[in-house]
Design goal:
Largest sheet: 8 strands, mixed
Distance between the termini: 64 Å
Strand order of the largest sheet: 1-4-3-2-5-8-7-9
Low-confidence stretches: 27-32, 34-63, 325-334
Shape: elongated
Structural class: alpha+beta
Number of strands: 19
Helix content: 25-40%
Number of helices: 15
Mean pLDDT: 82
Length: 500
């Protein structure tokens, strides 16, 4: 049954290619007319970006050939010459990067995960990495108020990334979508599900075509995922290791998450999607495309899978995990988890010195201080209040060279420590007495109990070196100076001494 369907699919593809050639002259004639209309329209509208109109894009004066084929598969677009170009809500039109990431996002009935997803993707990215990538958020809706609301949320949460061009937000013209109200039901799916997956295929296609000229590789993501901190380096390293020609590298086993393509292949892939966008889900279409390219109908399925595995290569462990529960399909709950995603990749262990650990915070379940100190898990506690503390008392006084405390993590990026100082207690008792009686002789303010305030948390992180003139230290304390509206996670602790 499966082989018969694929043979039929191959025949349809060959027929479509034949029909496409027959109509090429007609399409090219229409293209010349469309080209002039688009050019005039862009000149007229380029000054209206503030009210959700077009922003002029640096498209070539003649549409690329792969865009002319769009009119064949979506014939309604012949009446709307501008419908294949996006509304660019904001972006710096960055091009020439190594990696372009595409995230389609739509309305959900309940929880929206987009901002958490972006926090995860941007978490720990170096400035160099940010300069060599683009994250395109495609708001796949035509509701102007909703688009504005999501755009403002992104801009408010990530002002620097928006300004620098790392983040772009686009949306489709309403005329891009064909009538989806009368679709043929297939695969035993309900009418709502057929409509949902059909629109999803169109959304992926639109996003891919926009992203295609911007970089070398394109990474398909979704709006409800988390990533390990060094995912970009892992992707580049895995791609560089491939000696054979490939079509897709998979960094997650789930659906269409974490799929890497060469940008030069995207026109072919999108054209295949558009041929069958009403028939099957996107991940099935990718599998069918691979079958058409390399499988021999006269050989068995084992041979076919072997050939496809040369074009679709799986990386393990997975770099991305699905975290959403509420699907973009209304009423659907999906507890999908990638079993190859190793949560411990989110953790960073350090060889910290032996110490007694204590805190005034109320610890949540098994997320203890001991676990974060050893790099086994995070420390998680209910919302801190003024006067709360976390303390590390060394079994023997030590010369501490530097420290790093990181709060929040990719799963809960908002659970950070705010208005929290880093304080050290010198081992010299005479120095402590002097600090209590006379204040600090160093450039650090002293507390009433003899601690020196040497640093503070900024954007969830406290790090620095310690003045050697302080001498050996017997304790480090994190002191909270005001009530926090959120819980607190300590995800990384590094205490570097002269001995470790």
């Amino acid at each position: 049954m499966y082989q018969h369907q694929l043979l039929e699919l191959q025949q349809r593809l060959l027929y479509a290619e034949k029909e496409n050639k027959k109509r090429s002259h007609e399409l090219n004639s229409a293209l010349d007319e469309i080209k002039h209309i688009v050019a005039r329209r862009m000149n007229i509208t380029k000054t209206h970006t503030g009210d959700m109109k077009w922003k002029e894009l640096n498209f070539p004066s003649k549409l690329p050939m792969h865009l002319t084929n769009v009119y064949y598969y979506l014939p309604h677009l012949r009446e709307y010459e501008d419908a294949i170009f996006p509304n660019v809500i904001f972006g710096q039109q960055r091009t020439g990067v190594s990696l372009v990431m595409g995230i389609p996002t739509v309305k959900r009935e309940k929880q929206n995960y987009l901002i958490d997803t972006l926090h995860s993707l941007l978490y720990k990215l170096s400035e160099e990495q940010k300069k060599d990538c683009i994250i395109i958020i495609f708001i796949a809706e035509v509701d102007v108020e909703y688009i504005k609301r999501v755009s403002e949320s992104v801009k408010t949460s990530f002002p620097r990334e928006v300004q620098s061009g790392v983040l772009e937000v686009i949306s489709p013209p309403a005329s891009y979508y064909p009538d989806l109200s009368n679709l043929k039901k297939t695969l035993g799916d309900s009418e709502d599900r057929v409509r949902w997956r059909t629109k999803q295929n169109l959304d992926y296609s639109f996003l891919m075509l926009y992203a295609q000229p911007k970089g070398t590789f394109y990474l398909q993501l979704e709006d409800d995922i988390i990533a390990i901190p060094d995912y970009i380096e892992s992707i580049k390293s895995f791609a560089a290791q491939q000696s054979q020609d490939w079509m897709v590298l998979e960094f997650s086993q789930l659906g269409f998450i974490g799929k890497l393509f060469k940008s030069e292949d995207l026109p072919l892939i999108v054209e295949f999607f558009l041929m069958f966008y009403k028939d099957k889900p996107i991940d099935w279409l990718i599998d069918h495309l691979l079958w058409v390219k390399v499988c021999n109908p006269e050989k068995d399925s084992t041979h076919c899978e072997k050939e496809k595995s040369k074009l679709r290569i799986r990386a393990k462990p997975s770099l991305f995990q699905h975290m959403g529960v509420y699907s973009s399909l209304a009423g659907k709950i999906q507890n999908l988890k990638d079993k190859d995603f190793r949560k411990n990749l989110l953790l960073k262990a350090h060889n910290n010195p032996p110490a007694k650990l204590d805190t005034s915070l109320r610890i949540y379940h098994q997320y203890t201080l001991e676990k974060v100190y050893k790099g086994q898990d995070c420390f998680w506690a209910s919302a801190p209040v003024a006067g709360d503390y976390i303390r590390f008392t060394f079994l023997n006084p030590l010369e501490v060279e530097k420290y790093l405390f990181r709060s929040g993590n990719v799963e809960h990026p908002g659970d950070k420590l705010f208005n929290t100082t880093v304080e050290v207690l010198p081992a010299d008792e005479m120095l402590i007495k002097e600090l209590v009686d006379n204040g600090s002789k160093f450039n650090y303010p002293a507390t009433k109990d003899g601690y020196l305030k040497i640093g503070a948390f900024e954007n969830g992180i406290a790090e620095g070196s310690i003045n050697r003139s302080i001498g050996r230290i017997q304790a480090i304390r994190l002191s909270v100076s005001s009530d926090s509206p959120v819980w607190a996670i300590l995800s990384e602790v590094l205490i570097k001494t002269s001995e470790n």
